Every structure is written in structure tokens, then in C-alpha cells.
């Protein structure tokens, strides 16, 4: 009997601790809304630049370039937002908060999960802001509720994967600049994908990389859902990439965390 109760008690302890620490982290976000505003400025700037400056010259094969562009901008929004997770995690480490948490009777992994869940919530809010701006720019979609839920699911798993990568950077960085620098390649990866132009317009080696890197399958899946087109195998490829990266990043993050605070 006691062996069955202990795991259940431990799970309850973990969820309760994670909820409390996530609330703490979210309060910091709500007290500094400039974080979300700053996160959305660059994606919105890209959206405005490509639609109103480059859009007339880009042949995307779509009558509405804003709709074509939006999935890639969503991913850029998430990639730029997770840099703040790495930064906040690094600052907590430098401030000694983790050491204080270690001396308290809380689940150890709940500290990291609080940062991760805060990242998911903040980044999804940023994505919603970007979608609202896109609506003002002419974006329209006849996607069903189910399609939007699928899009939300893809973005959530994608955000979780990138956030756990951000946790690795935050735990390993030696400086504030190093904590956020990891995000730059993630932000520019959509530029070498189908996010802005069809991959068929790219030269051989670039086209090969663009077609087989994870962002293209994710972008194509979201775009198909928005335009009510068959998703095909892109959805499963996108989910495989996201889940694979998530599992690897989580395992590495926890290994680094345990080694640092063992």
C-alpha cells in the first residue's frame, strides 16, 4: 500500500510546486509587459517588411502573401521569445535563487518546468498578437476550429522543444550575452525554408537543406491548415521533428541540471 501511495504523493507534490513557481514566474512577466512587446516587435517588423516592401516582387504562388508568410512569422516569434527564457534562467542562477530552492522541500525539476511553462504561455500570447496584426494587414482564413486547435498544438510542441533548448543554454552559459545568443540561428532558420518563398525557387544545395530541415515541414503543415488544404505527411514529419528535439533537449537539460546541483 505504501509503495503505491508514495509515487502518487510525489506527482501531486511536483504539480503543486510547478504551479506555484509558474505563478511566480508569470507575475514577473505581467509586471514587465515590455518583454512580450519586445518579443513581438521583430516578427511584426519582418511581417511588415516582407508584405509591403518585398511582397510585390516575391512569387509565392499565393494570392495573399500575408497568409503565405504568417506561418514562418509565427515560428520566428517563438524563436525570438525563447531567448528570454534562457536569459531569465541565467539571471536566476546568478542571483542564487536555485540554491535557495534546493534548500526547500520542493520537487527539484519543478523549478525548470516553471520557466518552461511560462515560456509557452508568453510565446503563445505573442503569437496571438502577431496574428491580430496580420488580420489588420489582410490575413484571412477559413480554417475550422479543429484546424486552429491543430495549429495551436503544433506551435505548443514547437515552443516546448525550443524552450528546453533554451534551458540548456541558460544552464550552460557563462554570460548574459551567451545565454541569449543561441537563439540567433533559430530565428534565421525560417529564412532558409519554405516560410518566405517556395523551396523550388532556390539553388540546388540551398534547396536540399531547405526541404529537409525541420522548419519547412512545420511551416507547410500550418499553412495547409490555414488554407484548408490537405496536410499530408508534412504534419507527421513536423511532429516527429518537434517531439524528437523536445525529448533530446529535455534529457540533456535534466542531466546538466542534476550535475550542477547534485
- How many beta-strand runs? 0
Number of domains: 1
Our count of helices gives: 11
Shape: elongated
Query: Low-confidence spans: pLDDT under 50, at least 5 residues?
Result: 1-6
Largest sheet: none
- What percent strand? under 5%
Q: N- to C-terminal separation? A: 30 Å
Helix content: over 70%
How do the helices and strands follow one another from N- to C-terminus? HHHHHHHHHHH
Rg, Cα atoms, Å: 20 Å
Q: SS-based structural class?
A: mainly alpha
Average pLDDT, to the nearest integer?
A: 83
Membrane topology: Multi-pass membrane protein
Family: Belongs to the ABC-2 integral membrane protein family.
GO biological process, one term: response to antibiotic
Keywords: Antibiotic resistance, Cell membrane, Membrane, Transmembrane, Transmembrane helix, Transport
How would you portray this structure in words?
The chain has 262 residues and is mainly alpha-helical. The protein has one domain (2-260). Helices cover 78% and strands 0% of the residues. It is built from 11 helices and no strands. Helix 1 (2-31) packs across helix 5 (109-136) and helix 2 (34-54) packs antiparallel against helix 3 (65-94).
What are the key terms here?
262 residues, mainly alpha, 11 helices, 0% strand, elongated, disordered N terminus, transport, cell membrane
Give a topology summary:
Layout: H1 2-31, H2 34-54, H3 65-94, H4 97-102, H5 109-136, H6 145-172, H7 176-181, H8 183-188, H9 204-212, H10 214-226, H11 234-260
Helix pairs in contact: 1-5, 2-3, 2-5, 3-5, 3-6, 3-10, 5-6, 6-10, 6-11, 10-11
Amino acid at each position: 500500500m505504501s509503495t503505491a501511495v508514495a509515487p502518487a504523493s510525489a506527482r501531486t507534490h511536483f504539480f503543486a510546486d510547478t504551479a506555484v513557481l509558474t505563478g511566480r514566474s508569470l507575475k514577473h512577466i505581467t509586471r514587465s509587459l515590455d518583454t512580450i512587446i519586445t518579443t513581438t516587435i521583430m516578427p511584426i517588423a519582418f511581417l511588415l517588411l516582407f508584405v509591403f516592401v518585398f511582397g510585390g516582387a516575391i512569387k509565392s504562388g499565393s494570392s495573399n502573401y500575408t497568409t503565405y508568410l504568417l506561418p514562418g512569422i509565427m515560428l520566428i516569434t517563438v524563436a525570438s521569445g525563447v531567448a528570454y527564457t534562457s536569459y531569465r534562467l541565467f539571471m536566476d542562477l546568478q542571483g542564487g535563487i536555485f540554491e535557495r530552492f534546493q534548500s526547500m522541500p520542493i520537487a527539484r525539476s519543478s523549478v525548470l518546468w516553471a520557466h518552461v511553462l511560462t515560456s509557452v504561455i508568453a510565446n503563445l500570447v505573442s503569437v496571438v498578437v502577431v496574428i491580430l496584426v496580420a488580420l489588420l494587414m489582410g490575413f484571412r482564413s477559413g480554417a475550422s476550429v479543429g484546424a486552429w486547435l491543430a495549429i495551436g498544438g503544433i506551435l505548443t510542441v514547437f515552443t516546448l522543444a525550443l524552450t528546453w533548448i533554451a534551458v540548456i543554454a541558460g544552464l550552460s552559459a557563462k554570460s548574459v550575452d551567451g545565454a541569449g545568443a543561441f537563439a540567433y540561428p533559430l530565428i534565421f532558420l525560417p529564412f532558409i525554408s519554405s516560410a518566405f518563398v517556395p523551396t523550388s525557387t532556390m539553388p540546388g544545395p540551398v534547396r536540399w537543406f531547405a526541404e529537409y530541415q525541420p522548419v519547412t515541414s512545420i511551416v507547410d503543415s500550418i499553412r495547409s491548415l490555414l488554407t484548408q488544404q490537405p496536410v499530408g505527411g508534412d504534419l507527421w514529419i513536423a511532429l516527429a521533428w518537434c517531439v524528437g528535439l523536445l525529448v533530446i533537449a529535455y534529457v540533456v537539460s535534466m542531466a546538466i541540471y542534476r550535475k550542477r546541483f547534485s
